Amino acid sequence: MRMLENNNRKIITKMAMSSLKGNKPKFAVMIIAVVLSSFMLFSVFTVGSTYFKMQQLQNIHLHGADFDAVLQGGYSEQQLNRCKGNQDVRVAGAGGYAGAAVKTDADDTLHTGMIWCDETYWGVMMKPARKRVRGYYPKKENELMVTKAALKDCGKENLDVGDTFDLTYTDQNGTHTKNFLISGIWEGYGEQQLFYVSEAFYKKTGYQLNNMGVLHVKFKNKILTEDQRTKFQESIRLNKRQNFQFTGETEKSAGIFAGMAGLVLVTCLSAYLLIYNILYLSVSGNIRYYGLMQTVGMSSRQIRRFMKTQMMLIGTAGVGGGILFGFFTSFLVIPKIVRTLGIRESAIPVTFHPAVFFITISIAGLTVYFGSRKPIKTAASVTPVEALNYRLTSAKKKAHKTRNGSLIWRIAADQFFKDKKKTGISVLSLAASLSMFLCLITIIQSHGARTIMSNYMDTDLVVSNDSLMKEEDEKWKPILKPSLVKELKKSKDIREVHPLLCAKIIVPWEPKFSDVWMREFYERWMYTPYKDDINDYKKHPEKYYSVMQGIDKKEFEYLNKSLIHPVDQKLFESGKICIIYGPGMDLSGEIDKKARVKFYLSENKNKKFQPRIAGMTDDSYYGRTSGKGPAVIVSESFMKKYVMNPYISKLNIRYTKEYDDETEDRIRKNLSQSTSAKDVSYESKIDSMKDIQKAQGNMTGVGVGIALLLALIGLMNYINTVFGNIQNRQVSLAVMESVGMTEKQVKKLLVREGLLFAAASLSLTATAGLFITYQYYQTMNYMNIPFQIPVVPVLAAVSSSAAVCIGIPLAAYRIIRGKTPVAERIRGFD
Amino acid sequence: MESYIVETRALKKYYQLGTNVVKALDGVDFRVKDQEFVSIIGKSGSGKSTLLHMIGGLDVPTEGETYVDGKNLAEMNREQLAVFRRRKIGFIFQNYNLVPDLNLYENVTLPIELDGDCVDREFIDEILNLLKLQEKKEALPSTLSGGQQQRAAIARAIASKPSIILADEPTGNLDTASSHDVLGLLKAVAGRFKQTVVLITHDQDIAQLSDRIVHIEDGRIVRGSDAYVGE
């Protein structure tokens, strides 16, 4: 027979509510824990997705278009159709090299290229990288889409849409001068020194898309596995000349996804630890109350329901509050802070996704459920008598040996190891936050504008004499003079100056090296066959001239380090051996180790040389644009012996202080006063850094925000553990005070306890955390930047966590103890 | 004039409870001679524990002065009071108040170690033998019986050889047999080490073991046959 059920749900809910109201401070702490956890989850998801969106945007800005892979070295119609027809491909846009600007009436050393691109590339893929477009993409042969930078390079910065100007340019068919109409001007990110031309223009340049075309591919899926990438590459059947490359971030997409999943996992773990820790402490501290409830007739089932109702109320209030708090922070506070820092609001569009609400509520809800399961079980299973005698101490140990050594350290260690689970949770949480901070800060810092530049370019400024690029050597001018080098070297703000000396040379035809060189050069870079020019080369080698370049000892050391097989310095200094500059060329199988390059000086045919070729470099610093022969790199001292007044083609300058704006301004100002100032160009680390900074927007700020949020949760966990711990020990501490422990000694004890927490968390971070950071870093390191721990932020994090670990117990003790006399605190037991 | 090891003058301790003022001590003049064993007897809430806490420097009076071994406690700061306590006073509480994470031996030597002194192991062993605790040296408090814990508390109270032992209902949580056992030992030990004992109890029988009994009611000392009050 089934007894009639008594509906006692109402009274249980009422009791749960009144218990919450009656114990406001205690439950407020629990609600705050849930609020903080939900806040952290919500913020990490929102700010995190914003961060990754911004990172994507940065890549679009850096590339100047939105694509995942690029096919260079030409493409066939078939390949284009195969890409477009592939179900994994969202879009495929094409473009092609259409020539180079040579001169205008305002400047005769131009650096601007000419490009044609199809509607997809211009209209779809480049669109996210553009900020503004006026006018339209060129339709007629004489129309150009320009940028301010390209116009400035031509000395035509004042022109606008609708204006015309005369431009001399080269293409496959030779050099031409034409009057162009500016059909449009665009502003945005990516390569700026370009003129975009019409299809009509392109068709007349003589270039073929299957030789000089470039195909950009954007895939539907953001994550591409290695297998998928290989399959796609195979599907488009590349020929020997073609080069298909995925962008760094696409290659690492699976790793990046794993990294993001890891971040979410740690966030969830931290949230779980915080909620669990607080619920566990709170329920354990309340066990006597549940015992009392049982003595007045509440059944275990009712206690369970009573607690579940309480948890549900706490969970609802906490999760709701957390989401509101997170919403407020993500959408209102972050943009405000960023705006105060002087960054435009539009640079930080906080990404919002409805799934974030759902995920946050689910995870926080599940955490409250799982976090309260064990405490509820304990509360329901404890007998009333047990509950009355319940103490939050580990009674597992019955005795221990009397120990020697400092009493304070011994007690501190006892406390640390007393409840291993609780200590473990706190240490793990602190270490998780610290590790996440370490991981994020390492990634953020290494991908910061300065770091990227420092790895990509290890010099501050390269000044080039562009007049040396002209075909006719009577137009070569000695703009960079030895006196300038001397002057620069004297400056305190400049650490190093390395001139790159240059003299025109003729490399006559001979079968062993120059013939091999030309054959390879034509195959790689020319669109006319070598066999058409070989006889002309044999007869008129001066038309196929090149340069001898002299480098100083420091420059040699740098270059030698970059070679696969470093060369002998003494032989290099004496001029017996040389290094050849070969852009993208591989002669290793073609010439033997004894091969020599035979040449003579253009100014004096009698000065003949034949150094052995000891190495090859394709560092573009040693490259030049005109001349087909090999650039021969020799030592400065050797060159000076035979060339009376060599030109200085480049100056490689390093400042005493990196990124020294003032020094750079001074150098530029000095050179701008020269009559040939237009023939001087600069490659500056500061400029490049600014470009990257511009492209990055506020990525660093948002990343640091996430790291700080995680640090906050670790901190909360620790604060909670410490407060709980000191609360539970206040009688014990008061007893020790009653038998003569001074306040100083109590503080010493708490400091030592904090130090043990700090040491454990930091050790865990320095071992496991560092290992995970390294692994994450490598999976997410699509720019191949060397792993380097940012010293200042990490030291700051270490010292602040140590300070926090020490400060929190002291503060907790101060707050809990208040001004209550020892006598009253001892009574706390009863 | 006779000198006293403990002396309180017009000692008052008032508590504010809502709108009411509770007078826990209301002008107490109390004196104890060196090596004397005095019992303070009174009902629950009469102020006897408060008086003991004032003598031990565990609480601060609202008014009045407390002299212990010639020192005015009001002139000491917290730090000095703590040092004073561990050198001059041994406490025994009703709840034993042993530190749960330290074993019995460590609990006993705690005041000595806090003072930075070397532990006189022979002396401690002698006390433990006397209190029949030698076998339990390494046991944690939670594994000891009430009687054993109280004996451990006595051992801790006398370990640093203080001049005064303040015992707050030391038998409150013990059965009759254990109570007599503990008090007998306390008296014996205090006699042996020439210590003054102030014992709080509400049990007339236990109070009979002392040299002198002082009655306290509503925060005031009620004159006893051999009390020094108002002399």
Automatic annotation (TrEMBL), chain B:
Domain ABC transporter as annotated: residue spans: 6-229
Instruction: Return one GO MF term.
Output: ATP binding
Q: Name one Pfam family in it.
A: ABC_tran
Q: According to its UniProt record, which protein family does this protein belong to?
A: Belongs to the ABC transporter superfamily.
Which protein are we looking at? ABC transporter ATP-binding protein
Q: Specify the species.
A: Anaerostipes hominis
Q: Does the keyword ATP-binding apply?
A: yes
**SUPFAM superfamilies in the record:** P-loop containing nucleoside triphosphate hydrolases (SSF52540)
- Which keywords has UniProt assigned to this entry? ATP-binding, Nucleotide-binding, Transport
InterPro entries listed in its UniProt record: AAA+_ATPase, ABC_transporter-like_ATP-bd, ABC_transporter-like_CS, MacB-like_ATP-bd, P-loop_NTPase
UniProt key word ATP-binding: yes
PROSITE patterns xref list:
ABC_TRANSPORTER_1 (PS00211), ABC_TRANSPORTER_2 (PS50893)
